[in-house]
Amino acid sequence: MQLLKVIFLSVLITALLVSCTPAAEPTKVEPRTLTVLGAASLTDSFTELGKLFESRNDGVTVIFNFAGSQQLAQQLGEGADADVFASASKKYMDAAIESKRVNADAVTTFVKNRLVVIFPIDNPAGLKELQDLAKTGIKLDLADKVVPVGQYSLDFLDKAVKDPGFDPQFKDNVIKNVVSYEDNVKTVLNKVTLGEADAGIVYVSDITPDAATKVSTIEIPDALNTIANYPIAPISDSNNPELAQAFVALVLSPDGQAVMAKYGFIPAIK
Where are the beta strands (DSSP E) in 7-51? Predict the structure, then answer.
């Protein structure tokens, strides 16, 4: 009987001690911010990837700075804080390497892209083929040549004048029709969708589901097109090197490549 009382008291004391022990506080996650500089053509795809990255990394907020690759490379050269740089051209990634913001051996091509001609859905200029871009009176909007897509557009014109299907004056006549040169590809798309230009040249990836309701396209054949390579790299002096590498890894992963393909990019990772 005495043994039973001892056991009972022991159980009772244990229960009281447990009930009085304060519950362990949940582990606090330190908030962190990842800053990604991305070419303007990556706006939609990277925004989705940013949300995916945040969902997989508690306490992390991804902040994007989207602009022309030339502007981003300049910002890096001037010391802008950043963790990741994704360019629409090797030229401006090389500039980031030259300014010591990116290590050359950390650069990877993650997607490719190609050009397409766009025009408003109501087609006020009556465009039917590439040759129509040289018609007198066409209002054409292009990215500036310092922007990757702007240089690629000029490359298309240079190739076209060597093609027997185009007039030798094709490039000159097209250039005469340019009413504005923009500092990023999204501005070209916006001006055409708003009807401020009869046509423009953008990337295939810019034709999002929403844009497809506002513009029609004329394909540029492979022989005249330029396949743009997009390199990505963590910034060498990033304040969040592990996060930066993790974001790059996500972009290169099957999940990341699937998101890029969803937005019209050509996967570069097999």
Answer: 32-39
Tell me the β-bridge partners of 117.
201, 218
Res 28: pLDDT: 73
Q: What are phi and psi of 67, to 5 degrees?
A: -165, 180
Contact by Cβ (8 Å): 148, 228? yes
Query: What's the rounded Cα separation, in Å, for the pair 252 and 255?
Result: 8
Q: Name residue 67's beta-bridge partners.
A: 39
Locus of tokens 């923009």 = 182
Radius of gyration of the chain measured on its C-alpha atoms = 27
Helix (H) / strand (E) containing 242: helix 241-252
pTM here is 0.84
Sign of CA dihedral 48, 53, 56, 60: negative
Walk me through the domains of the chain, giving residue ranges and CATH numbers. Answer: 32-112+229-267 (3.40.190.10), 115-219 (3.40.190.10)
Contact between 231 and 39 under an 8 Å Cβ cutoff? The reply is: no
What's the half-sphere exposure (Cβ side, CA atoms, 13 Å) at 93?
A: 24
- pLDDT per residue over 77-109, tens digit each? 999 999 999 999 999 999 999 999 999 999 999
Contact 200, 117 (CB under 8 A): yes
What are the tokens at 22? 């304060």
C-alpha 108/C-alpha 45 separation (Å) is 18
Query: Is the alpha carbon torsion for 215, 65, 73, 103 positive or negative?
Result: negative
